[in-house]
Amino acid sequence: MPARPASCGARATRPGAPAPDDARRGGRDGWRRVGSHAGPRPFPMSTTRTVLVALLALLLFWGVGAYNRLVRLRSAVGASWVPIDAQLRRRQALAFELTELLASDEARPAMGDAVGTAMLQTVMAATRQAQAAADHAQGRPTSAGAIQSLGLAEQVLEGALRPLRVLVETRVDRFDMQATLERVVTLLSDLQETDAQIAFTRRVFKDAVSDFNAAVHELPTRLIASLFGFRPAAALQAATPDRGPDSQIASSFGDRA
Predict the structure, then answer these.
(1) CA 32 to CA 128: how far, in whole Å?
(2) pLDDT over threshold 90, residue 130
(3) Residue 154 needs a FRET pair 20 to 30 A away by CA distance; which of 75, 93, 127, 143 works?
């Protein structure tokens, strides 16, 4: 009996070939496998790395803030130095003018002896020393060495002016020319006012230096200060001037007039 022909809807397949459905499934699986190796997937940032990046950013922001604070405090020291430098130079100029006047012929009857001459020479030398120290400290208010040297020179000048004031007060009656004595009293009064201004500006400068030094020495700002060359500053130390003789001279001059 002859074999029945295959159905019209059935497809002929070679022996051993995969079924069409299996081929389609295999094709899709193969596509998936090939697609999975097309390129590396983004590696998610771990929690530890995130924390480290955040800490580094925080440290950077803190360092910038600490540096800006040191710069601001150093600028405050420089700003507070300007008025005290002006007053110190004014006192030096007044002391120089006073000694020249007392050493002139008009004041010779009062200051021409050995004691007066020696005292005037001492004041003149102290004035020159203070002027040189002020020039050395010019533009260097945060230099501890320059400010300390200036402070010592100003102490010497103050110490030389005090006995000169007392000596002039005790020799008011020796001045022959009233105009000369009046000029001496005016200079001594100007010195007294300048001393008061120096005392005030010195306190302002000292406060600015204290704030700057506190920032330089505190941890962890000290690390930034050391890295960028911020050094502690020095306050201007000076003896307290004695202003008593000035009023006595003015009183003596008033009685004489």
Answers:
(1) 94
(2) yes
(3) 75
